[in-house]
Structures are given as structure tokens and as C-alpha cells.
Amino acid sequence: MVSAAYETFESVAYMLLGFLPFLWDKACSIGSTHFGYDETNDEIKVTLIFLLLVTLVGTVTALPFELYSTFKIEKKHGFNKMTIGLFISDKIKSLLLTFIIGGPFVALLLKIIKMGGDKFYLYVWAFMSVFSLFMMTIVPVFIMPLFNKYEPLKDGPLKDSIYALAGKLKYPLTKLFVMDGSKRSSHSNAFMFGFGSNKRIVLFDTLLTQ
Question: In Å, how far are 18, 40, 65, 101, 128 from 105, measured between CA atoms?
Fold first, then answer.
């Protein structure tokens, strides 16, 4: 609740104080000084610098609330298993992925809007559809393993029961994984992902011990 209240206050303050226009001017200055970018001719590149600044500022302002939530509230109730080192590692990985994937995505999106003419929204819709399918494909295979370890569920009654239930429901389950969620939290969870005839289920290792 406090975090949500602060986010509202921050948004209002940014609007009243003109903080975002300030960051845009700063992005133009950085682009011009260090890269020779022109605000008019290199609008997309300047926009990427602007979004980089917004992301960094947002990360810093949100950090105290994330630390308090993880290492105070979660710890108080006996759920937190995360270390400071793992917290920092996760944050760095998340930022790098945001820049590596988000940067080209925004650049392509803006390019499509600029070149799309009156029908730009159709091209944007097509691009977003393709990008969504792309992310659905790479996230479980390449991105999720950067944060957690996934192992096939061992043979046994539980595995047999899950496959039997999936077959009864005509759910095209192809793989069952166990994720080492216990290294961050003692919360139990499970989730499904995939599309078409390639569905997968992931169980938190904490769920198996309960």
C-alpha cells in the first residue's frame, strides 16, 4: 500500500515538476554531446537514451520498497530465503534483459509507427503479435533459466498422477519441471506455459516438500 501510494505521488510530482521533459532534455544533451545525435534526425536513438534514464531512475526509486518487502516483510513471516547477493544479481540480469530486448523492441516499434503512415496501427498490431509469439518461445528456454534451475520431475506417483490428469482433461502436457524456488522464498507455487500442442508445467521445489 505504501509503495502504491508512493508511485502515485511520484507520478503526480513528475507531472507537476516537469521531470520527464527534464529527462528528455538530458537525453538530447547526452546524445548530442557523446554520440553526435540530433533530436530531429535521430529521434529514435534519443528516445532510447530517454527510456534508459527513465528505467534507471525508476529502478533506484523502487529499490527501497523492494528491499523492505523482501528482507523485512517476507523475512518477518518466515518466507524470505534470498540473499543480498542474489537480489543484486537478479536486478542486474533484469536490467540487462530490459536493455538487450527492450531497446531493439522500442526502436523497431517507433520505426514502424514513423513509416506506417495512416495504417500504422495495423503494422503495430502485426509486429506486437509476432513479438509476443517470439517472447513466448524464448522466455522459457533462454530467459527463465537465467534466474532459476529447472530439472525434469523424477518418475514416481506424482508425475504419473499429473500426466493422468492432463490426459483426462485433454491438456497437451509434454514436459514436467521442478524449479528451485526455495533459493528465493519458501512460498509454494506452480505454473503452466507453452502454446499449441507443446504445454509444460513447472512445480516449485517447495511444493514437493509440503
Answer: 27, 20, 28, 6, 9
Buried b (16+ CB within 10 A) or exposed e, 171-205: eebeebbbbebbebbbeeeeeeebeeeeebbbbbb
> Pairing mode, if any, of strands 173-179 and 198-204?
parallel
Residues of the chain with pLDDT under 50: none
Q: How many other CB atoms are there within 10 angstroms of residue 130's CB atom?
A: 10
Calculate the CA dihedral of residues 104, 107, 108, 110 and round it to 10 degrees. 160
* Whether pTM exceeds 0.90: no
For the stretch 122-157, pLDDT in tens is: 999 999 999 998 998 888 889 999 999 999 999 999
Query: Which residues does residue 80 pair with via DSSP β-bridges, in sequence order?
Result: 185
CB 157 within 8 A of CB 134: no
Cell of 149: 534451475
Give the pairing type, strands 173-179 and 150-152: antiparallel
